[in-house]
Design a protein that fits this description.
Radius of gyration: 21 Å
Number of helices: 13
Helix content: 40-55%
Oligomer: single chain
Largest sheet: 7 strands, parallel
Strand order of the largest sheet: 3-2-1-4-5-6-7
Number of strands: 13
Order of helices and strands: EHEEEHEHEHEHEHEHEHEHEHEHHH
Distance between the termini: 8 Å
Strand content: 15-25%
Low-confidence stretches: none
Structural class: alpha/beta
């Protein structure tokens, strides 16, 4: 029987402010320390705004320590993976927390270099698979994907969120910054797998058939500049200039203002390992219409309108049917808030404490 560890260190390739994985890592360190473990965060790439109580992985000795478990957050290609391989091969206890790796096929036509990096990330994960002594995944979808790498027995344990942060004061100019009647909202990285082009196409139909004063806000950092350029051209070609705001990354108070103004959150993404913005929308009382794909299906569950077809006319009609029925809209808002409450830190931390004990004795 292995000795229970006293230290659980997290290794994360990129530690970024207002990033789902970065926030999760921060909350997990808080939970680990409160549970009595020594715990540090080791990074490869660091957002300067996150500097402080974190350290570069290059400063860490890979020699095995029987009292330590390393939890590796897998989501991207990383030089850190070589360090993990060295430590694991030497006998260090290693576990993985899998946040999903976007399939390269979504980026091959837009960002070939990024696509190659995604392919390499999958090769790295497959090479590391025999070394992992435990595995956690954000969703059942991710857990099933880990099995394809030969990593069996992964437990689905939701990403840690502090949903109370969403109730901070929004930007007071939000009503001016985010006009529209109604206002559609999508939040997520500008990336081909997120399919913002499908949202824009559906919005164009909705505006033409149902609500000519409607507006769409698309918020998120740009992962593919080429894809973003094509989205801008699409907006112009469809005559939507002034009606669609490709806002890019926005300060958190402005994001909260957008959620506060939004009438519906429309997600037509084809590949998500969890989809935190859906929970954000639910927590803030914005009804969700989403394409049923990847992990979105289980994240939304019965708390939103799930579509099996994202033809623009189908999506536009679904949004119109929802927003035209006040009772149904209110029902979805209530279901959404109930669903989001299940992902609060108080709830998910209990599940994580069970996983921590399992990993610590594996």
């Amino acid at each position: 029987m292995p000795t229970a560890v006293r230290r659980i260190d997290q290794f994360v390739p990129s530690y970024v402010l207002h990033d789902a994985i970065g926030n999760h890592v921060t909350q997990l360190r808080r939970l680990l320390r409160d549970a009595g473990y020594e715990s540090d965060i080791w990074y490869e790439h660091l957002d300067p705004r996150m500097a402080g109580d974190v350290r570069s992985y290059t400063e860490c000795d890979p020699a095995p320590d029987p009292n330590r478990l390393i939890l590796y957050h897998a989501s991207t290609h990383s030089e850190m993976a070589d360090w993990i391989m060295t430590a694991g091969a030497a006998g260090q206890r290693i576990a993985v927390d899998y946040h999903n790796i976007t399939p390269a096929s979504y980026f091959s036509s837009w960002e070939p270099k990024a696509a190659r990096s995604m392919e390499e990330a999958r090769r790295q994960l497959a090479a590391l698979a025999p070394l992992f002594r435990g595995a956690v995944a954000d969703s059942e979808y991710n857990a099933l994907e880990l099995a394809e790498f030969g990593i069996m027995g992964a437990t689905a344990c939701p990403i840690l969120l502090d949903t109370s942060e969403y109730h901070a004061p929004p930007d007071p100019d939000g009503a001016t910054r985010w006009p529209g009647d109604p206002l559609w909202l999508f939040v997520g990285r500008v990336a081909p797998n997120k399919c913002q082009h499908d949202v824009i196409a559906a919005f164009a139909v909705y505006r033409r058939l149902y609500a000519p004063a409607a507006r769409l806000a698309v918020i998120g950092a740009v992962t593919s500049a080429r894809y973003k350029k094509q989205l801008s051209a699409m907006v112009d070609d469809l005559g939507l200039a002034g009606a669609v705001d490709l806002a890019g990354s926005t300060p958190f108070p402005e994001l909260l203002a957008a959620f506060g103004r939004a009438d519906v959150f429309v997600c037509l993404s084809e590949h998500e390992g969890f989809c935190v913005p859906v929970i954000e929308a639910m927590e803030l009382g914005v009804p969700v219409v989403a394409y049923s794909a990847a992990a979105v299906t289980e994240t939304v569950a019965d708390a939103g309108v799930l579509l099996g077809d994202k033809d623009p006319l189908v999506v536009a009609a679904a949004v119109n049917e929802l927003l035209s029925d006040r009772d149904r809209t209110q029902t979805m808002i209530e279901r959404g808030r109930a669903r989001a409450s299940g992902f609060s830190f108080d709830q998910t931390s209990k599940r994580w404490l069970i996983e921590i004990d399992r990993l610590a004795t594996a």
